[in-house]
Write a structure and sequence with these properties.
heterodimer; A: 73 residues; two-stranded antiparallel sheet; globular; B: alpha/beta; 4-stranded parallel β-sheet
């Protein structure tokens, strides 16, 4: 596997705020896919640095404002 | 007959167990009055805005862990609230939403003054000036006993703190700490997104300690008798005794008080033993795990159940008779889980509803291999996807059912046969009516 630099960020969803628009999975398919009910399943680990802009793009375009970037614990 | 009606609020005779502490002196049908209580327990110190750190230290030395299900170290929780800026609040959680559990109702109905002393001690420890006690409004005996005990006190022992008793909505997640706090704040009894946790921002936005009533009563035991005495029961890692509700196919379903680490078999013997041949045991409650009979000798403790993929939860054991179908029992509980969703998180709303429907097909021997695969995949997809852990409970129970009831599953999938006699064992309450 290719070795890549990791950012210090993870992407999280507020499951109460999320209503399943599903846009995030289109904008950030490397990291987010939808379950059978249309709600996003997010990879939990630190986002690789080269994907961070894409993650921010997904966060900014969530109509429910349910996504956020958080620091790696 | 449903064998898991609420266990009678009494302690069954149990020569194999040490004398009761939390339920010492408890008699069927009556609560211990203030005078009798004070014969053993000295009055708690006056509550002030200044935390009493020595009390937190004492509870830390006793090694008390929460008895509501999560088993979090109580002293750490107290310290987190005490470290927050005052004023602070204590919430005594007596909601006991776990259907096969009756232990919180039992300790409140029999020993309400011990619970109140514990709440006052916790308030003194964290420097809280307000105490709210929440009891499921359907648990009349517990609520009445607490109300009577408070009335008895205000006439003879001024509390010195703002204390309120409230009947909470009969919903499972109403007892989840953020749900309880939101309800105390005038909202629906539904969990909220975390952070913030109640210790950061709870009732009225203040640092709030939410503590189970059995834990509070245990604090009162420790304050009176000391850490070393407390540690005479239990294990070094999990000190003390705890209340366990034992029901199902047993002679005298009851709430037992036993040292942590007592074996499951001993606890079942303590309520008279099985009434018939058993096929499995549920431990921890609906928010728990099915275990095979091979687990009977396991100690009822975190360390004892961890290797089996289970945990003591809120202190529940249900003995499943061989005449019942574990898959059918599980299907009814998963339906109940779906009905108790607060309806806030997609995977919980839609995932649990679909999971319940498909698992009912499995239990009815109408599912095929693909359906079973879907059940497993959905379990993985639903887990960890709610704001609270409600959906995770359904998933865990389903997984344990699929691994414990392998013979039943093979029969259901093969010949389409179910050996269950159709008599429900687990009592599944009807859906709650209100969130307010």
């Amino acid at each position: 596997m290719e070795v890549r630099n990791l950012s210090a960020s993870v992407i999280r969803v507020d499951p109460i705020a999320c209503v399943g628009h599903g846009i995030c999975a289109d904008l950030f398919p490397e990291w987010i896919h939808l379950d059978d009910w249309g709600y996003p399943i997010l990879l939990q680990e630190a986002i690789p640095a080269h994907l961070l802009d894409q993650a921010k793009w997904a966060v900014a375009n969530c109509p429910a404002l349910a996504l956020r970037l958080a620091d790696v614990q | 007959m449903s064998a898991t009606r609420k266990a009678p609020a009494r302690q069954a005779p149990a020569p194999s167990l040490p004398p009761a502490r939390l339920l010492a002196g408890a008699k069927a049908g009556s609560a211990i009055g203030l005078a009798a209580h004070r014969a053993t327990y000295t009055r708690p110190p006056q509550v002030s805005t200044q935390p009493r750190r020595n009390l937190i230290e004492l509870i830390g030395q006793a090694g008390l862990q929460g008895r509501g299900g999560a088993a979090f170290p109580t002293a750490r929780k107290l310290k987190a609230v005490a470290d927050g800026a005052g004023p602070r609040v204590v919430v005594a959680n007596g909601t006991e939403g776990e259907p096969p559990s009756a232990k919180d109702q039992t300790v409140m109905a029999h020993n309400p003054h011990l619970v109140i002393d514990g709440a006052l001690l916790a308030a003194a420890a964290v420097g809280a000036t307000q105490i709210l006690i929440g009891v499921d409004r359907a648990h009349r005996r517990a609520l009445d006993a607490m109300r009577a005990a408070l009335a008895e006190r205000t006439s003879s022992e001024p509390l010195g703190v703002n204390l309120r008793l409230a009947g909470t909505p009969s919903r499972y997640v109403a007892g989840e700490e953020t749900g309880l706090v939101q309800w105390m704040n005038g909202g629906p009894a539904m969990p909220t997104s975390v952070p913030p946790r109640p210790f950061q921002k709870g009732v009225a936005g203040l640092p709030t300690l939410v503590q189970n009533v059995e834990t509070l009563a245990s604090i009162a035991l420790i304050a009176q008798h000391g850490a070393e005495w407390f540690r005479q029961l239990g294990t070094p890692e999990e000190p003390g005794g705890r209340l366990v509700t034992v029901s199902g196919a047993v002679r005298q379903p009851a709430v037992m008080e036993a040292p942590i680490g007592t074996s499951i078999a001993t606890l079942i013997q303590a309520v008279g033993g099985p009434t018939e041949e058993l096929s499995a045991i549920m431990v921890g409650g609906f928010y728990g795990t099915w275990l095979p009979l091979g687990a009977l000798d396991a100690p009822y403790s975190r360390a004892g159940l961890l290797p089996l993929g289970a945990s003591p939860g809120a202190g529940v054991i249900v003995a499943l008779p061989a005449s019942a179908c574990g898959l059918a029992e599980t299907a009814r509980v998963v339906s109940w889980y779906a009905g108790e969703s607060a309806g806030q998180c997609g995977p919980c709303i839609f995932g649990l509803a679909d999971l319940a429907e498909l698992f009912a097909q499995v239990a009815a021997a109408r599912a095929n291999r693909d359906d079973l695969e879907t059940v497993r995949r959905w379990a993985g997809d639903i887990e960890g996807r709610g704001a609270c852990k409600h959906p995770d409970g359904a998933v865990r129970l389903v997984r344990s059912a699929l691994s414990v009831f392998t013979d039943e599953l093979a029969r259901h999938m093969g010949t389409g046969e179910c050996r269950g006699n159709g008599q429900p064992i687990l009592r599944v309450p009807p859906p709650g009516k209100t969130w307010r």
